[in-house]
TrEMBL record:
Superkingdom classification of source: Bacteria
Record-linked Pfam families: PNPOx_N
Naturally occurring in which organism (per UniProt): Salipaludibacillus aurantiacus
Every Pyridoxamine 5'-phosphate oxidase N-terminal domain range: 12-122
Alphabetized SUPFAM superfamilies for the sequence: FMN-binding split barrel (SSF50475)
This protein's name: Pyridoxamine 5'-phosphate oxidase
């Protein structure tokens, strides 16, 4: 994985440990498609849960080339952090342990307090394994003047 850092950058691992939304870009024939997703960063791979109703796993099986963008933004402080990934994804069998690590980041460690939609995921679901080839890490924060 090649990481492109600019003068203003940040710690990628710390950034990816936050419960941020990622935008997964896939291709459907000649048209790009964007899916907002939760993610988990582990062993230099991004993991995403796919459900039977999701269409992005179908697109990934047809064309594994993907891009993922993640932004942290705070209007009050002027914070703007961006990580942009390009790489390839695969559809993998569901792994309950990995899914729990991912979901705990967003809903806490007490599974009983999770939204019921996420408490009983099973093998009808799948995982997307995204392996980045390049990553752009850029701090585009600005000074707030009000």
């Amino acid at each position: 994985m090649k990481i492109y850092r600019y003068k203003k950058n940040f710690n990628l691992d710390s950034f990816l440990s936050k419960p941020l939304f990622a935008h997964l870009a896939t291709v459907d024939e000649d048209f790009p498609r964007d899916s907002p997703v939760w993610f988990h960063w582990e062993d230099e791979k991004l993991w995403i849960i796919g459900t039977p109703s999701d269409t992005f796993p179908i697109r990934i099986r047809k064309n594994p080339k993907c891009a993922i963008g993640i932004v942290e933004y705070d209007k009050k402080t002027g914070l703007v952090l961006h990580a942009g990934f390009r790489g390839r994804a695969t559809v993998e069998p569901f792994d309950n342990g990995l899914a729990c690590r991912l979901l705990s980041k967003y809903m806490g460690v007490d599974k009983e307090k999770w939204d019921p939609r996420f408490q009983f995921l099973d093998d009808s679901n799948m995982l997307i394994r995204f392996i980045p080839e390049t990553v752009v890490v850029r701090d585009q924060s600005y000074t707030v003047s009000y």
